[in-house]
Specification:
- This protein is 31% helix and 15% strand.
- By secondary structure, the protein is an alpha+beta fold.
- The chain has a domain of 134 residues.
- The longest helix is centred in the C-terminal third of the chain and has 26 residues.
- The termini are far apart.
């Protein structure tokens, strides 16, 4: 048998020390925009990315729509209105700061992407005359055709455009390099971030980077509750290697998090479910507002907010009488109150009325422009559907004018989940910041999926640029710190340890064990006894399983580090669940050992951080961000003037 040879250089135990004004950890759309914002302001910038920037991150291969472009020339709503709708929709367990930045600056970032070479307009007039097209600007709109604040875009063009701009601005790109630990320094004013330790995932080389400011732009957690090494599949939205290392690094360093106890109803992220939801016919988000039919071909009606049946396809895209606008797509999965948008009839009501399963999406019954927009544009540009769904089905003869795709319900019921599949989807927990997107540690900023209650690529781009801008400004007043060499050496020993274990445990075994632990002890219903058992078992794994972890090369070593980070995130979640003593409907959090649901004293953000290694609880009022417009404008006068 031919001996396998590792194809890359052996740089184990080699270290390179670097300095930069702004260090960006994560090369998704948020990290790219953070680096661009800092570089545009004349700063030296290093961007660290575990993969290859051109297609890395949750939006690396594309996305189909851009929410909350409230300042585009056709919009009929204001950033203030949509921000309030988001906050109300999430029962005030919401990131009003990040949502306002998304709504206020989102269209600016689209204009940037167009300037970098991305495509945001129907420049070839493919949809000329369509109801959702503005003929003057050639912008295409989705969901709410009256208010025009969500755009259909060619998202697959965006990451290549961002990469070109990064290179043009001479940003130093450390690709195939994982960030593993934040460097910090204790000062009289408190703990400050001073850079990071990183490792090349092909050669094992260590990078020690000193930075005046650091931007965390890495993914949200994944593979916490659901991981099957034999069925990793395609996953739905985020790549399976996006597992929340930034959360783990921040937790170890003392960064403050909130809503980590929140349970969201599906592991709908990067856990290895094999079929993207948009490969089945449905009527949600990318497929909104596809015509749905039952097994006999009988059309299933759409209803407006007030329960009135909508007779035409066009009516599905307009607010009801007296309704100013409705929210669809992305973070708003179940619109309610006065903003409730058109939905198909409730599933149980459909069954009572005699509709027969299975259901299908029948695009042939829609106008040609709507059919082409859903199948050719939106399914064709959504990241996990461009090739495996649109490309493969088209190649095999699928014709939306003739054929239907089977569904498994309506809306999100087209993708079914187990109770224990509680992955952080929707608007999950994450880092809590001030209005500069600065964490509780000076010098460390956060954006995109690192923030709590965030979702969608538009928000990632807007908050990424904003965080990079603020980090660049702050770097003018900060001096470099010399890295703590003892900390660096301890981190290197931690990183390399699995290389010196022969015939040990593979990382997949421990990932599976942690997922099973979380299913059993932190499932759909919580109680103190179970959560404490989970923490005890997790500590047992640290003592007995972690020392047995074995890796043969830097790639396996990276995967092993991911599982160690998953364990830290699991620990944070277990502690956060212990801190919330009552059930909560907005947080999808249920306790069996409490008869209270959302008592007044618990309607707050419970925060969690480590202080000198001790897990510490905090409390912040729900609407701590005050009036978004006022707070934003007093901190961003120069930006506002520059955009005039």
């Amino acid at each position: 048998m031919k001996e396998y040879r590792w194809p890359y250089a052996n740089e184990l135990n080699e270290k390179e020390y670097r300095k930069t004004d702004v260090l960006v950890l994560g090369g998704g759309v948020a990290g790219c925009f953070a680096a661009i914002a800092a570089a545009e302001r004349g700063k030296n910038v290093i961007l660290v990315e575990k993969g290859s920037v051109i297609h890395s991150g949750a939006a690396g291969t594309g996305f189909d729509h851009w929410e909350s472009a409230c300042t585009n020339p056709c919009s009929k709503v204001t950033p203030e209105e949509i921000t309030k709708a988001y906050v109300d929709e999430q029962d005030h367990y919401s990131n009003g700061i990040a949502h306002y930045i998304e709504c206020r600056e989102g269209y600016d970032r689209l204009a940037d992407l167009e300037r970098f070479g991305g495509k945001i307009r129907d420049t070839e007039d493919e949809f000329a005359g369509a109801e959702f097209r503005d003929e003057e600007t050639k912008l295409l709109f989705a969901y709410d055709y009256a208010n025009k604040f969500t755009l259909r875009v060619w998202g697959s063009t965006f990451k290549p455009a961002l990469l070109r701009q990064l290179k043009k601005l001479n940003v130093t790109l450390l690709e195939r390099t994982e960030a593993t630990a934040l460097l910090t320094e204790d000062t009289p004013e408190g703990r400050r971030g001073t850079g990071a330790v990183c490792m090349n995932v092909r050669t094992g080389k260590i990078e020690v980077i000193s930075a005046k400011t650091t931007v965390l732009a890495m993914s949200r957690p994944a593979r916490i509750w659901l991981y099957n090494p034999d069925m990793t599949g395609l996953s739905e939205f985020r790549p399976p290697q996006c597992i929340g290392s930034g959360h783990a690094m921040g937790y170890r360093a003392g960064v403050e998090f909130t809503m980590m106890e929140k349970s969201v109803r599906g592991e709908f992220s990067a856990a290895g479910r094999s079929i993207p939801p948009y490969s089945t016919g449905n009527n949600h988000n990318t497929w909104y507002a596809a015509t749905m039919v039952d097994a006999r071909g009988v059309e299933i009606p759409y209803l407006d907010r007030d329960g009135n049946e909508l007779k035409t396809v066009s009516e599905r895209y307009y607010p009801a009488k007296g309704q100013k606008f409705f929210l669809k797509g992305g973070v708003i999965d179940e619109p309610k109150y006065e903003y409730r948008g058109p939905e198909t009839m409730p599933f149980d009501e459909l069954m009572k009325r005699g509709y027969r399963l299975p259901f299908y999406a029948d695009l042939s019954r829609m106008p040609e422009s709507e059919r082409k927009a859903i199948w050719g544009l939106m399914v064709g540009e959504e990241g996990k559907t461009k090739i495996p769904v649109y490309g493969n089905l088209t190649e095999r003869g699928f014709d939306p004018e003739k054929h239907m795709l089977q569904s498994y319900g309506t809306g999100w019921q087209s993708a079914s989940f187990l109770d224990q599949e509680r992955q952080l989807f929707g608007a999950p927990g994450g880092i809590i910041t001030d209005w500069d997107l600065k964490t509780n540690l000076d010098g460390i900023y956060a954006c995109g999926d690192q923030l709590f209650a965030m979702d969608c690529a538009g928000a990632a781009c807007a908050t990424g640029y904003y965080a990079g801008r603020k980090a660049a400004e702050a770097s003018d007043t900060i001096e470099f710190f010399t890295p703590d060499e003892a900390f660096v050496e301890n981190e290197i020993r931690r990183l390399y340890a699995p290389l010196y274990v022969e015939d040990g445990m593979d990382w997949r075994e421990l990932n599976s064990a942690v997922s099973k632990l979380m299913q059993n002890y932190c499932g759909g219903v919580k109680c103190d006894d179970l959560l404490k058992e989970g923490l005890d078992l997790l500590n047992h794994y640290r003592k007995t399983a972690v020392p047995q972890l074995s890796a043969k090369n830097p790639h396996e070593l990276m995967r092993t580090h991911e599982v160690l980070d998953i364990m830290d995130v699991a620990e944070m979640i277990l502690h956060a669940c212990l801190m919330r003593k009552s059930s909560s409907k907005p947080l999808c959090f249920e306790r069996s050992d409490s008869d209270q649901t959302d008592p007044a004293e618990d309607q707050r953000f419970i925060t969690i951080r480590t202080v000198n290694g001790v897990v510490t609880e905090g409390s912040i009022p729900l609407d701590y961000f005050n009036d978004p417009k006022t707070e934003y404008e007093k901190r961003n006068r120069n930006y506002i003037e520059d955009r005039k």
